[in-house]
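Record type: monomer structure entry
Structure origin: computed from sequence
Chain ID: A
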Amino acid sequence: MRSTDDLTARARIRDAALELFGADGAAGVGVRAVATAAGVSPALVLHHFGSKEGLRRACDGYVVEAIRGAGSGVLSDTSGLAAMLEAATPVRRYLARALLDGSADAAALFDEIVTLTGKWLADGAREGWAHPAADPHARAAVYVSWLLAPLVLESHLARALDVDDLHGIDATMRYSGAAVEMFTRGVFADDRALTAWEAVRKERETR
């Protein structure tokens, strides 16, 4: 059985890795850098995690469980999406990097969220608070991609909105308000864009 100090050291190492991997990517950070940030020896990092890859997998698992909810195993409702966007900054930045770097756990979580969101939107279509979709799965995937975009495009969105901290409440309310308005009221006042898209689709089908 591990001592309390042992468990605390493990968590400290993991948290240091979350910060560093999220900022620079796992490929750009060595075990020694994580050990220094955690205030432990490289040997202790390897003792707890076996290798840098083992540490990265532990970080993946921690972030996934933080978003899903401890012990739940899967996302049970759309609160998981809110949890993802409201999580501590190191968790969000790690997830963004994991999605870009191709983490298997992050990929599985993305797929799970798309499936869940598809069911949620289908319920909405049946209940009348969401429009039906010609391609429900594609719509769910695009919707989730939009929700995750601030994680991946944080610096660009912050620059465009002229804010120092994209995760501050004022910035969050601003960009989420614009998004809710888009989803609720739409952007285009007529169907010319959709008509143009349909014309392109039909032309490609006849080739």
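Annotation 1: DSSP finds eleven helices and no strands in the chain.
Annotation 2: Residues 196 and 205 are 14 Å apart (CA to CA).
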